[in-house]
Amino acid sequence: MTDVLPWLIPLLVVVVLGAVAALVVPRTRRGKQLPPVVTPPPTTVQPPRPAETAPEPAAPDTAEAAAAPAVTLERPAPTAGRLVRLRDRLARSGSPLGARLLAVLSRDHLTEDDWDELEETLLLADVGAGPAGELIDALRTRVRVEGVSDPVAVRTMLREELITLVGPDLDRTLHTQGTAPGTPGVVLVVGVNGTGKTTTVGKLARVLVADGDTVVLGAADTFRAAAADQLQTWGSRVGVPTVRADRDGADPAAVAFDAVKQGKADGVDVVLVDTAGRLQNKAGLMDELGKISRVITREAALTEVLLVLDATTGQNGLQQARVFGEVAGVTGIVLTKLDGTAKGGIVVAVQRELGVPVKLVGLGEGPDDLAPFDAAQFVDGILG
Ligand SMILES: Nc1nc2c(ncn2[C@@H]2O[C@H](COP(=O)(O)OP(=O)(O)O)[C@@H](O)[C@H]2O)c(=O)[nH]1
Ligand SMILES: [Mg+2]
């Protein structure tokens, strides 16, 4: 009996340890949430790592080990000069506008028909009736006073007038600095579904990281887990964590609140909050966005509300923009998909419509295809 004891003790230890592990490990295991037995916290902070698949249920230890792979972070392209670097995308999409305007203006004696043609070209490029009329008036005056001599002078004149129309003096600063010590800047991103909000938040996180800021993302589009996954993937690539709901349909305001709280606790520079754009009715939209802003401001001031607008949607997009402008207190516009349209004039129209400057433009689906907007560089891009 006594010589059995030395065997029995380690055996008992193994059995007890096994039982303890069986109790503890499933609780700490990450993965897709089944209907929870214990009430989970409303949101979780997902550390910056690639979106994972659910771990094998039979191998919790391996899953834990696999949860900490050596992640190679990407280095976003510097933000300075991005619009210049992406200029050919504008030239490609905007050249019909720039080239057509230049072609007409270079004619020897400009007739009424020529001026009508110019106006029509501007309208086709979504500049909007008011601004198009102003540009024509300005050009007519200059042609009368200065005459149109050589092509270089014509180009210079058109360039100057287009820059004036786009607004060289509008303050396009992106406000990402917290307003009180120890508080992050908070950027809320709103807009209709499919305009490019999540992509923009992802690209913007990269811009901020490239500029040396620390960032937390809030996935307040809680309709589908896929939306949060999409955002988390963007963040992971540059080492930025995402605060997300544990279940579909959770309260977006709660997620936004938790994200800002988390950002504050972590002492980060900026919190970016992505939202859903599915609400078609104005009252519902106002309710939801109002609630999100209110709960955010309990933790920190909202420093920027960006409205994302798809440049290819023209007048339709403007209509939607108007509604968001009314309910969300928009402070800046992000115009996406400018690489896919000849209607660059929408920059002018939307600024007029909302009285808010375009601050960023999306010029492609690549991770660094988001550029700070600049009137002169934009016009140069359009004129090719
Ligand atoms: N060509 C182009 N595509 C873009 C741009 N921004 C976003 N997209 C695409 O637009 C689609 C919708 O984007 P997403 O961010 O999911 O829109 P959300 O529903 O507003 O969040 C995606 O396929 C994006 O890759 C852009 O600047 N240029
Ligand atoms: Mg989205």
UniProtKB/TrEMBL annotation:
HAMAP family given in the database record: FtsY
SMART domains the UniProt entry points to: AAA, SRP54, SRP54_N
NCBIfam families, alphabetized: ftsY
Subcellular location: Cell membrane; Cytoplasm
The protein's name in its UniProt record: Signal recognition particle receptor FtsY
Reactions listed under catalytic activity: GTP + H2O = GDP + phosphate + H(+)
Gene this protein is translated from: ftsY
Low complexity bias: start-end ranges: 51-68
InterPro entries assigned to the protein according to its UniProt record, in alphabetical order: AAA+_ATPase, P-loop_NTPase, Signal_recog_particl_SRP54_hlx, SR_rcpt_FtsY, SRP/SRP_N, SRP54_GTPase_dom, SRP54_N_sf
Region (Disordered): 32-68
